[in-house]
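Title: [Solved] Cytochrome P450 family 4 subfamily B member 1 3D structure

Original question kept below for reference.
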Amino acid sequence: MGTVLPGVCCKCEEERRRQFAAPGEFSESQTHMTEIQRSLQDGVTLSDEDVEGRGDDLAKMTYLTMCMKECFRLYPPVPQVFRQLNKPVTFVDGRSLPAGSLISMHIYALHRNSAVWPDPEVFDPLRFSPENVSGRHPFAYMPFSAGPRNCIGQQFAMNEMKVVTALCLLRFEFSLDPSKLPIKLPQLVLRSKNGIHLHLKSLGSGK
Ligand code: HEM
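Solution (posted by the thread starter after getting help):
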């Protein structure tokens, strides 16, 4: 095992590494992903005003928003955040941690916890439909962290991604290169060790 941060339990660290190393998850769902991509392409509307940051079509692309949220559930760009406790914390089950402990909030593991997310490995954008979101704990999903130090750029980031993704979907159909599947590499951000190799098929829209 490589370096374990001071104060981070070895068992948790092992679990973290095991989770990130889960094999085969990209190959399973190519047909499923193609169907989702076609539905997305049908629903994408984007005006020049949106690209310039003045339009309101972004708010209307609800399925695209749900897909992006589901991507962030399975692949949170920030997989783990840390805090050093400045006072002791006692949890609901009576266990406690002393002041000074370095603790990790494991966003990646939370987003794949089957007690919170049924069939966690399945890519299902409908998890983020308004009715499904309403029954879920507000901290079940936290790609932008939560609480007083959450991400101040999250709305901007979501809008920027919507514009870029919509522009790409209007022009191309994407599929993974099955011979070069991404190897997840958790660093400060979650990235791929070997890049992300995609096939692009032009949709010939000329846009
Ligand atoms: C997909 C894009 C992004 C993701 C997933 C993301 C995620 C996060 C997360 C998880 C944190 C909390 C870190 C922690 O608790 O230790 C954070 C904090 C922060 N983010 Fe983002 N972020 C994104 C984009 C942005 C953008 C575009 C901006 C600025 C325009 C931004 C500005 C910040 C700032 C200033 C903080 C620190 C807030 C504080 O400590 O009070 N982020 N972000």
